[in-house]
């Protein structure tokens, strides 16, 4: 069932091009976008603008497929541009590969009237009317796309309120959450970043009347990002400046820190850049973590990374990873033993040094700024889930990067560099307690990620994360070698993970 029809007025070709950008950013795999209207009503103009926006190429020819019938574009979201004007029968649609196109990406269809009975029921219909430069659109779409398009248009309105109504919007990235990011190109000025993070409704209660997000202390809106970014900048770290914000709608316009990461040209960890990243952590952990932070008349209470949050994260291994790996559910006795072992380990963390834990301090979220000096060379993003917890967690996050292999030699060098810096700051810094906390938090983090990556595949249809599992399995095996983790190592061995029990 389609949502209520939407009317859009486009005053000129420029408005048509901007609306095409908004539509492009709303498209997802499986979307079938059908353009109808008289000759000269603007369908081809809109189609060409949409394709150029998706390709990020203003000069792309994007010819009309009137004679070829199909023109494919292998873009971030694969797109098939189909023109049905010349087909003689709706049956010819089978030969054009529409089903395959929708399985992998989206389709843009002109003259859909020629084969309406063969098009998906969940199609998006756009009717173009008008002559000259002005266009009037009537849009009938399934609720899912209608909501995405309205969100995209809300982002355009937010940009307009920031003086960027006609700025070019280009997809930058999405992640495993609902957040997405765009590059916003401004005339004669450096580009900036739009963070699109709609507030997420709480999921179903799973324990003590609370949903997973509240137990694990996951950010549900943009307020934590603004709070932590402001605090980090005040402490001298290179977090992005907040240029404009709509806290209620979940839109932020933030500084673009750059595009160069901390990996080398072959995609491996760059020792110099990783060294600066560990130096930033050493300095961060020398500072007293903030309990509350003001944000535009509100107060963000930085949550504690407590045992309850840690436990629900390690349960992801027995809920998702282990049943997937073994092809059978985990027994209640096996699960109870696993959780009891973790409870003992979490109790040991009561003496661990507390610090602001950024939580996703690894290569995708660290930006190298070659033209800067000192620690300002490292830009830091994606810290909205920050908590106060064991300082060892972020060190483990960097040294056991989930998406790129950090060798044991490099990880060892980084840990030693960190320990030397902390000892220089504070002669009473307890290195042995840190090493113990590091082993516990590294294993906890790896257990969580193994479960998350399998869940992304099985629940969310994102199998690409499975390629990282061997790396995470190697990390957790290395962490379990610490003597304090021996009982857990025996449990993993009995479960068929890691080295055999000794």
Structure description:
- By secondary structure, the chain is of the alpha+beta class.
- The protein has two domains: 6-144, Rossmann fold (3-Layer(aba) Sandwich), CATH 3.40.50.300; 193-494, Aminoglycoside phosphotransferase (APH), C-terminal lobe (Aminoglycoside 3'-phosphotransferase, Chain: A, domain 2).
- Helices cover 39% and strands 17% of the residues.
- It has 14 helices and 18 strands.
- It has helices at residues 13-26, 43-55, 98-104, 143-161, 212-215, 223-234, 271-284, 307-326, 332-348, 392-399, 408-425, 431-458, 469-479, 486-494, and strands at residues 6-10, 32-37, 70-73, 79-83, 106-110, 124-129, 135-140, 168-174, 180-185, 192-196, 242-246, 251-254, 292-295, 298-301, 354-357, 366-368, 378-380, 387-390.
- The strands form five sheets. It has a seven-stranded mixed beta sheet with strand order 1-7-6-2-5-4-3, sandwiched between helices. The protein has a five-stranded antiparallel beta sheet with strand order 8-9-10-12-11, sandwiched between helices. Strands 13-14 form a two-stranded antiparallel sheet.
- Strand 3 and strand 4 form a beta hairpin.
- The protein is globular and about 80 Å long.
- The protein starts with 5 loop residues before the first strand and ends in an 8-residue tail after the last helix.
């Amino acid at each position: 069932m389609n949502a209520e029809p939407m009317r859009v007025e486009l005053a000129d070709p420029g408005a048509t091009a901007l609306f095409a950008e908004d539509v492009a950013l709303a498209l997802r795999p499986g979307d079938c976008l059908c353009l109808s209207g008289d000759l000269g009503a603007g369908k081809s103009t809109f189609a060409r603008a949409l394709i150029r926006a998706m390709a990020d190429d203003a000069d792309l020819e994007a010819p009309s497929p009137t004679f070829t019938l199909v023109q494919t574009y292998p873009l971030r979201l694969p797109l098939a541009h189909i023109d049905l004007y010349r087909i003689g029968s709706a049956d010819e649609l089978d030969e054009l590969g529409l089903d395959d196109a929708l399985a992998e990406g989206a389709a843009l269809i002109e003259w859909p009237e020629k084969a309406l009975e063969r098009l998906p029921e969940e199609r998006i219909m756009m009717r173009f009317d008008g002559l000259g430069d002005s266009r009037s659109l009537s849009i009938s779409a399934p609720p899912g796309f209608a909501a995405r398009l309205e969100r995209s248009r809300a982002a355009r309105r937010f940009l307009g309120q920031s003086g960027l109504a006609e700025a070019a919007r280009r997809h930058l990235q999405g992640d495993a959450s609902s957040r997405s990011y765009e590059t916003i190109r401004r005339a004669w000025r450096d580009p900036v970043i739009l963070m699109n993070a709609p507030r997420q409704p709480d999921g179903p209660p799973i324990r003590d009347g609370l949903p997973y997000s509240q137990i694990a202390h996951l950010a549900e809106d943009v307020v934590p990002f603004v709070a932590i970014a402001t605090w980090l900048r005040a402490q001298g770290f290179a977090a992005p400046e907040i240029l404009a914000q709509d806290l209620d709608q979940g839109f932020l316009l933030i500084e673009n820190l750059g595009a160069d990461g901390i990996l080398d040209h072959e995609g491996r960890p760059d020792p110099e850049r990783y060294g600066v990243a560990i130096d930033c952590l050493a300095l961060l952990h020398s500072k007293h973590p903030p309990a509350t932070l003001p944000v535009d008349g509100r107060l963000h209470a930085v949550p504690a990374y407590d045992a309850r949050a840690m436990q629900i994260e390690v349960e992801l291994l027995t809920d998702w990873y282990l049943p997937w790996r073994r092809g059978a559910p985990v027994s209640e006795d096996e699960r109870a033993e696993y959780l009891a072992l973790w409870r003992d380990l979490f109790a040991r963390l009561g003496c661990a040094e507390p610090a602001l834990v950024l939580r996703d301090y690894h290569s995708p979220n660290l930006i190298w700024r070659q033209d800067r000096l000192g620690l300002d060379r490292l830009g830091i993003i994606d810290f909205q889930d920050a908590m106060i917890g064991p300082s060892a967690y972020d060190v483990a996050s960097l040294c056991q990067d989930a998406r790129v292999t950090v060798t044991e030699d490099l990880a060892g060098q980084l840990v030693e560099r960190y320990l030397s810096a902390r000892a220089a700051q504070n002669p009473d810094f307890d290195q042995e307690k840190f090493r113990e906390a590091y082993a516990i938090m590294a294993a906890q983090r790896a257990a969580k990620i193994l479960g998350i990556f399998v869940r992304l595949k099985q629940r969310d249809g994102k199998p690409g994360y499975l390629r990282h599992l061997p790396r995470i399995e190697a990390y957790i095996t290395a962490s379990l070698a610490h003597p304090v983790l021996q009982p857990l190592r025996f449990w993993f061995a009995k479960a068929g993970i890691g080295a055999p029990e000794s």
